[in-house]
Amino acid sequence: xxxxxxxxxxxxxxxxxxxxxxxxxxxxxxxxxxxxxxxxxxxxxxxxxxxxxxxxxxxxxxxxxxxxxxxxxxxxxxxxxxxxxxxxxxxxxxxxxxxxxxxxxxxxxxxxxxxxxxxxxxxxxxxxxxxxxxxxxxxxxxxxxxxxxxxxxxxxxxxxxxxxxxxxxxxxxxxxxxxxxxxxxxxxxxxxxxxxxxxxxxxxxxxxxxxxxxxxxxxxxxxxxxxxxxxxxxxxxxxxxxxxxxxxxxxxxxxxxxxxxxxxxxxxxxxxxxxxxxxxxxxxxxxxxxxxxxxxxxxxxxxxxxxxxxxxxxxxxxxxxxxxxxxxxxxxxxxxxxxxxxxxxxxxxxxxxxxxxxxxxxxxxxxxxxxxxxxxxxxxxxxxxxxxxxxxxxxxxxxxxxxxxxxxxxxxxxxxxxxxxxxxxxxxxxxxxxxxxxxxxxxxxxxxxxxxxxxxxxxxxxxxxxxxxxxxxxxxxxxxxxxxxxxxxxxxxxxxxxxxxxxxxxxxxxxxxxxxxxxxxxxxxxxxxxxxxxxxxxxxxxxxxxxxxxxxxxxxxxxxxxxxxxxxxxxxxxxxxxxxxxxxxxxxxxxxxxxxxxxxxxxxxxxxxxxxxxxxxxxxxxxxxxxx
Length: 628
Fold this sequence. Notes:
This protein is an alpha/beta fold. Helix content is 26%, strand content 24%.
């Protein structure tokens, strides 16, 4: 459509357009990379504009002026999120941060709780019907525009035209300024550090094929995307589209085929990145842009089955409280979309949330897993909203767990040099048992090689991994689920109580080298429960004693055979030459397991029980596929 023919009276230079802004006006500016830079510069240059209150989600262009005293005398900035370029100004008290959930900001405008006189937005040129597109910034921009008394739009041919609820008719715009300039770009900042790689590795374990993802604001969530490139048929329902997703689109990792809400479409409200992602979303029907009140509404989010929210944090305390918007009293970023998506993912069928963060800050000097949040720190996410916490040292699962278990889970994923201190402080606060042993100070990344899965004949899948200190309650529940005869066959007496002290002795002896315990986990509803444990313990030079216990409903399915093989692999790597075992004479099933793998095992009587000596040289070639 020819603008000059359709509405010539609306077309004017930027200087003339902003001259219609009155002193004392409340001005809304479009978000982030969608902000109208030319209009902003013209507004700031108009010295007649005084006492202007500016509302914006993410601000970039105004960062060029924030250190100018004449600017701060004329303009007051109220931001819903503090961008990296505005952080210094926030620390210096030059801006006013408004804590608000993204899903609720549009309602603040619509209800006139935050009144708006003028909206400065940026749009694409109109189509033949007179509809422009808000392009990369629909989020709160649509509501800001709809609830302002006057709308001034910069028409930029370089603004991508996006599908969804992004269209604005020329009749709804009061003044038009035609000006072409590059869209604000936010270059990819993705340090390929070992910490990022390890966090990405752990998150990849939690993300299944077919899941729908939300990727939160920040460099860390974006940086883990390359570690999901081995997944299939992922979907996207998120606030923000970035360059980090581009390789996953191109490799067809993201297909949106398995989404239950708007299948086949990427649902988002904002795009920030480089020219590459802007050109990819331009006129691409794959993308469905909607306002934040839709995209971030927890009840809408929950309509996506298997919705996984991935966000970041500044610090997490031992009870699970998360701070993401301030460093003590210094406002650092914002609440943003984290709480909306944590709650939406919790309501999603099969969904959950992940909060990822490096274990330390300030070059390793301070822990991000802390006894308590820093003085002045905001609790963006309550301890009741948290599910998984991931650092480079592993995965802590907090949902449904008490303070004791949370402390142990979080101490395990803290940096090793801070673990003992965290445990000591937790003891002083009576969070955990006074005799609680701290997690090992070793870096246990090598345990990832000890994880495996086994598909049983009935189709169930069992996951195996090393026993951890945080498994105490699961281990206890496993023991009490066993029948008396099973317990007797394992411990050789009718053990009645499996106390905290007993469990402590069990895992305290596990150093994951000389001594090892593997647990088998089966899925039950939304959690995993222990159904088998296999252990070896150093007995004498070059030999370890091995033992197993399998819950009755899983016996006879080859699980002990599988555990024996996996424990042998680990023992071989730790320079053991063979196993020994003591078996009740009537336990013929266990004897068959040992004899099947070690046909030449030496069996002898010892006080009415059988003692078995097994050499690894007698076992099948580990390179050959074995049945279980």
